[in-house]
Design goal:
By secondary structure, this protein is α/β, with parallel strands linked by helices. It folds into two domains: 3-140, UDP N-Acetylglucosamine Acyltransferase, domain 1 (3 Solenoid), CATH 2.160.10.10; 198-250, no CATH class. Helices cover 16% and strands 26% of the residues. The strands form three sheets. The chain has an eleven-stranded mixed sheet, with no helix packed on it. It has a nine-stranded parallel sheet with strand order 2-5-8-11-14-17-20-23-26, with no helix packed on it. The chain has an eight-stranded parallel sheet with strand order 3-6-9-12-15-18-21-24, with no helix packed on it.
């Protein structure tokens, strides 16, 4: 049987597995779906057309599935989809999508959202990411798997954050961050590659060394950036991580690529 505290409010129509736990003073809306082993610890508000995957735990004062903070939102039936085994800590907020962004905000699996972090409308967050305290995504941001966000970092709407990227604390990101890249600064600058993250995730030493060489070429001084992209695609065609970076750069985007400061290597 589901464990529902007497002080919790679960609206008629909400769907939940038999083994969920809904703690004291939680509020679960009529269109919410809670998967197996979901736990709302206490004082959690889950609203809107929101689905939460198996094993996800949500801590006090989190606001999940409320309507977007977007003046263009006119009440359209948008949704929020949260995957499995996420850890959503105190005062985190996640909003549903909008008509202008595909109607859905999506969160993958096994992510950690620390205190006060925010996922705005229409964001698409992958899996195995970490958001430190008060990290913030504007609307329509796309985040790749294994990305890490430092405390008090903020990402501008419509930016893309590549897989394995690392955003430093207090960093404001106005443009796209390449996969495997590390950025810092009050306005983000590319500082090199997330080498420690690659090592922790089991990337081969030789592959990391080759990627560093490719990075130095791509963000070097010869020719234009567009020319170096094309040359790198030919020169490093067999280096999978580099081709992922090239594909990311070539993809359509509303923002340009975050660049390093002059003379800053990997």
């Amino acid at each position: 049987m589901a464990q529902i505290h007497p002080t919790a409010v679960v609206e008629r129509g909400a769907e939940f597995a038999d083994d969920v736990t809904i703690g004291p003073f939680c509020h679960v809306g009529a269109k919410v779906r809670l998967g197996p082993r979901v736990e709302l610890i206490s004082h959690v508000a889950v609203a809107g057309i929101t689905s939460i995957g198996a094993g996800t735990r949500i801590f006090p004062f989190a606001s999940i599935g409320q309507q977007p903070q977007d003046l263009k939102y006119k009440g359209e039936p948008s949704s929020l989809e949260i995957g499995a085994d996420n850890l959503i800590r105190e005062s985190v907020s996640m909003n549903t999508g909008t008509e202008g962004g595909g109607m859905v905000t999506r969160i993958g699996d096994r992510n950690l959202f620390m205190l006060g972090s925010h996922v705005a409308h229409d964001c698409q967050v992958g899996s195995d990411t970490v958001f430190a305290n008060n990290a913030t995504l504007g609307g329509h941001v796309i985040v790749g798997d294994f990305a890490i966000f430092g405390g008090l970092s903020a990402v501008h709407q419509f930016c893309r954050i590549g897989q394995y990227a690392m955003i430093g604390g207090l960093t404001g990101v106005e443009h796209d961050v390449i996969p495997f890249g590390t950025v810092t600064g009050d306005r983000a600058r590319l500082n090199g590659l997330n080498l420690r993250g690659l090592q922790r995730r089991g990337f081969d030493v030789a592959e990391i060394r080759a990627l560093r060489q490719a990075y130095d070429f791509l963000f070097g001084d010869e020719g234009t950036f567009a020319e170096r992209v094309e040359l790198a695609a030919e020169r490093y065609a067999e280096l999978k991580p580099m081709m992922e970076i090239i594909g990311f750069i070539r993809a359509d985007s509303k923002r340009r690529i975050v660049q390093p400061e002059a003379g800053h290597g990997a």
